[in-house]
Write a structure and sequence with these properties.
By secondary structure, this protein is of the alpha/beta class. The chain has one domain: TIM Barrel (Alpha-Beta Barrel), CATH 3.20.20. About 40% of the residues lie in helices and about 15% in strands. The chain contains nine helices and nine strands. It has a nine-stranded mixed sheet with strand order 2-1-3-4-5-6-7-8-9. α5 links the parallel β6 and β7. The longest helix has 15 residues.
Length: about 240
């Protein structure tokens, strides 16, 4: 079974990336992806995007699991979490860069994690430019603080997060998605350091094409059981409640 825990539908507000639910499902069927966790692009139009995700999930309930996009700095952020949960969305995506969350906005993000804990919602931190950070330390300290204060909340980040090995050794609630950069799959350097149990396929489609990432994982020189864990078994175990 193949599970992609990070793909998007909609239109990116700054770039020419876009994808419809129909296009995503077509890719899934073509390349054997059984389930996709579908997220919105970063936007200031939070409610519109969450409605789009909820509609997509209602169209393909056996194939898509919906994540809401939330701006923790919005006055109505907490209410939007409750509204999106009632629509059937099962996770939260926050965009660290678009909404400038690590720094002065960290208290807002901490407050948002409370309803995520109450509803057992995993939180994915979107970081498109993680490869070129000029100030990585706030990312390390911010995630370290959040994971410590909310140990029961699953926190999902890119494998390129600053000092991720150190963070994962300290916090069992941090999970990696494989992500790459401009259709170049990642090398998964944490595999030997941390083991295979908390790494999941996350393609960031349509920014990257899922076929390249699946093929890359199929060809990597890693033990076959590890390969199958990353492609889907880890997601089934770590996010079983999202797949019911």
């Amino acid at each position: 079974m193949i599970v992609d825990i990070f793909a998007r539908i909609g239109h990116h507000p700054l770039h020419e990336f876009q994808q419809t639910p129909e296009e995503l499902v077509d890719v899934m069927e073509k390349y054997g992806i059984d389930r996709t966790f579908v997220h919105p692009f970063p936007t200031m139009k939070v409610k519109e995007n969450n409605d789009l995700i909820a509609k997509a999930v209602s169209m393909y309930p056996e194939m898509l699991t919906g994540f809401m996009g939330i701006n923790p700095g919005d006055d109505g952020a907490m209410a939007e979490v409750e509204r999106a949960v009632k629509m059937g969305l099962k996770g939260v995506m926050v965009d660290v860069e678009f909404h400038a969350l690590f720094g002065r906005s960290l208290p807002n993000l901490e407050t948002l994690i409370v309803p995520c804990m109450d509803h057992d919602l995993p939180v994915l931190f979107n970081t498109e430019n993680i490869h070129i950070l000029t100030r990585p330390e706030p990312y390390f300290k911010g995630l370290d603080q959040l994971a410590f204060k909310f140990p029961d909340v699953r926190m999902v980040v890119s494998q390129y997060w600053p000092r991720i090995g150190e963070l994962m050794r300290e916090h069992r609630n941090i999970i990696l998605y494989t992500g790459g950069h401009q259709n170049t799959p990642g090398t998964i350097p944490q595999l030997n350091e941390l083991g295979p149990t908390r790494i999941c396929l996350g393609t960031e489609s349509p920014v990257n094409h899922p076929a390249l990432f699946i093929k890359d994982l199929r060809l990597k020189k890693i033990p076959e059981p590890y390969r199958e864990m990353i492609l889907g078994k880890n997601a089934l175990r770590l996010f079983w409640d999202l797949l019911e």
